[in-house]
């Protein structure tokens, strides 16, 4: 790499889901990608807010339905405080969320947990584009 080329840094991802096994599977999947880095995990909305403040991720994958502070409320609070963070709602039930409502809320989009991994990875990459340090 020549000195004139920008250094591209990894996309920093925070995973939020009350299902620990899903979080772990998603973390393993994302860590196989050279340009993605899972910087943290959270099990509910209040923890997600704290982790977003502390870790400053580029992207958050947030489950819609969680115990405690639900994902949708936490996601809206995060994008209000950190508008540069791209937050995707995750759901196992695509009919449970209105895609237009998600978009109007300032969230990046809606991802279905069982959609192909390549589509989830592409959504993350597309939302952030190339990051230069």
From TrEMBL:
Is the Cytoplasm keyword given for this protein? no
A GO biological process of this protein is: phosphorelay signal transduction system
| PTM sites of type 4-aspartylphosphate | 63
Pfam families for this protein: Response_reg
Q: Name the InterPro entries for this protein.
A: CheY-like_superfamily (IPR011006), NreC/VraR/RcsB-like_REC (IPR058245), Sig_transdc_resp-reg_receiver (IPR001789), WalR-like (IPR039420)
Q: Where's the Response regulatory domain?
A: 12-128
- What name has this protein been given in UniProt? Response regulator transcription factor
Out of the domains of life, which is the source?
Answer: Bacteria
Recall the GO molecular function terms of this protein's record: DNA binding
The organism encoding this protein is Candidatus Segetimicrobium genomatis
Record keyword Protein biosynthesis present: no
The alphabetized UniProt keywords are: DNA-binding, Phosphoprotein
Q: Which PANTHER family match?
A: TWO-COMPONENT RESPONSE REGULATOR (PTHR43214)
- Chain segments annotated as coiled-coil in the UniProt record: none
